[in-house]
Amino acid sequence: MATTEFSSNILKPILMKKIKLSLETSFWAIDEIVDPFKLINAFFNYCTVDIYKNTLSDIMLYVNKAEVCNKERPGDLFDFHTAVRSFIRGAYLLNFKTKRWEVKKAPKEWQIISQGSLSKEEYQNPFLVFEKAFECKTLEEFEFFLNEIVHVSLSPYKEQFDYDLITPHIHLVKMLDAAQIINERGIKKIKNKVNKKRE
């Protein structure tokens, strides 16, 4: 049985060699995607960032209500759950791509609204968002959070929580904004130090 009481930092040295983690995209993207960058592209082709964030906000509102969220079309929340679970797994894998890839530079000037929930520093380097998120919560904790809020929002009963729902919610919103920026700006391979010295 997996436990969530360990730091994601402990996992990094072990998993740096070869990470095998299914993104489970076949439920919503037809094909099984293994590259987290390709997953981000498919994820935002499936739905817009605003729809994901609005659905997440609706779910969070119904967590503390004795009402069913989206009772006319509850199946939409199942679709949301499957896509966002894949996204969280892809976001986790992005942490292991930062040594070889970087997000293309932000424009010199931009409107603050384009930052979404991100700081100026995070907007310039969206990879920081994923690093901070998985330093704060493990992959298992994010998946548990997603399962809980979707399950409870579809229940007609009010439940009490002794689990922190706010922190993973904030990080998930930031990860959605960061992924959208990566999708918009694109990525480029980092030149190795040997090539830089030659230049």
Tell me what the structure shows.
The protein has helices at 8-15, 36-46, 49-62, 75-94, 120-124, 127-136, 139-153, 166-185, 193-198, and strands at residues 101-103, 187-189. The termini are far apart. The chain is built from nine helices and two strands, in the order H-H-H-H-E-H-H-H-H-E-H. The longest helix has 20 residues, at 75-94. With 199 residues, it is mainly alpha-helical.
Low-confidence regions: 1-16, 193-199
Helix/strand/pairing class, anyone?
mainly alpha
Largest sheet: 2 strands, antiparallel
Task: Estimate what percentage of residues fall within beta strands.
Answer: under 5%
Main sheet: strand order: 1-2
**Overall spatial form:** globular
Helix content estimate: 40-55%
Give the rounded overall mean pLDDT: 86
Q: Please give the radius of gyration in angstroms.
A: 18 Å
Structure at a glance:
The protein is mainly α and 199 residues long. It contains nine helices and two strands.
Q: What's the helix and strand layout?
A:
Layout: H1 8-15, H2 36-46, H3 49-62, H4 75-94, E1 101-103, H5 120-124, H6 127-136, H7 139-153, H8 166-185, E2 187-189, H9 193-198
Antiparallel strand pairs: 1-2
Question: Which properties best describe this structure?
Answer:
disordered N terminus, 199 residues, globular, mainly alpha
